[in-house]
Amino acid sequence: MRIARFEHQGRVCFGSVKDQAVTALEGSLFDKPRETAAIFPLAAVRLLCPVSPSKIVCVGQNYLGHIQELGVPVPREPVIFFKPPSCLIGPGAAVVYPAGAKRVDYEGELAAVIGRTMTKAPEAEALKYVLGYACFNDVTERALVKKDPLLLSLAKGFDTFGPCGPFVVTGVDPGNLEIKTYLNGRVVQEDNTRNCVFSLERILHYVSARMTLNPGDVVITGTPKGIAPMKPGDLVEVEIEGLGRLRNPVRTSVG
Fold first, then answer.
1. Which pLDDT score, from 0 to 100, does residue 251 have?
2. What is the pLDDT of residue 146?
3. pLDDT, tens digit (0-9, with 9 covering 90-100), for 210-239
4. How many CB atoms lie within 10 A of CB 136?
5. Residue 207's CB: how many other CB atoms inside 10 A?
6. For 39-46, which contacts have Cβ atoms below 8 Å and span 24 or more sequence positions?
7. Nearest-CA neighbor of 163 among 185, 139, 142, 184?
């Protein structure tokens, strides 16, 4: 199932996407939502960020190639930080290059969306708590990180620095997915989630042992090697096998 969040004639709805149409859903997204009779062509709606989480939990240094390009040791435990929900944008929305920013990087990642309250979940049971998966771009102001690693969450928390979508997709094996990032049509990142240091099961077990994950929360799982700057006028796309392609232009700050 592909789940979208969309706006049509001023109304925001969740919907089930089939082919090139979306059927509006009623009821809770996390408790067997029902399809309605309202069906719209995808071209007639505006796709939004498909989730509205209480928190975005991020994992750093989780692909061996990326660890090597950073020149840091392989971590013994997941490296956890956070992005604020206010950074989220949907497919097609612009990443805004902050005024005064020195270097803004793309980071294509797999996102897991939590489907039910998760506390101290056993690793073997962890994926049962996941509603589905989406593409994510963990946009980062790299110069701030180089200035002071303690500014990591600030560097990743600017408004528009969390493109997510286009859909949340259920029934996917997160442990073996091809992931690619494109900059202006050119592949700049390419890997497979099987090459992660920490599996999603391990990450969810680790995080839920320390904090409760709520329905709708997002856990992003690290980026492959190939991070590099983008600039206003660029188009960045994150494509993950079975999940679709998330496209976002980059523009300058106004005002």
1. 97
2. 86
3. 999 999 999 999 999 999 999 999 999 999
4. 29
5. 21
6. 40/6, 40/8, 40/15, 42/17, 44/8, 45/4, 45/6, 45/7, 45/8, 45/15, 46/6, 46/7, 46/8, 46/92
7. 139
Distance CA 44, CA 35 (A): 18
Instruction: Give residue 147's pLDDT.
Output: 87
User: In this predicted structure, what is the pLDDT of residue 148?
Assistant: 87
Specify the DSSP element, H or E, that contains 79: strand 79-83
Q: b/e per residue, 3-36, with b = 16+ CB within 10 A?
A: bbbbeeeeeebbbbbeeeebbbbeeebeeebeee
The pTM of the whole model exceeds 0.85:
yes
Q: Token pair of 137, please?
A: 């771009």
- In angstroms, the CA 5 to CA 55 distance is 18
Spans of the chain, pLDDT less than 50: none
pLDDT of 254: 72
Cα–Cα distance, 188 to 164 (Å, whole number):
19
> What is the average pLDDT score of the chain?
96
Q: Are strands 130-137 and 186-192 parallel, antiparallel or unpaired?
A: unpaired
Q: E-assigned strands of 150-195? A: 162-169, 178-183, 186-192
Q: What tokens does 228 get?
A: 């590099």
Please choose, from the candidates 215, 217, 219, the residue with its C-alpha nearest in 3D space to the C-alpha of residue 30: 215
Pair 82, 57: CB distance under 8 Å: yes
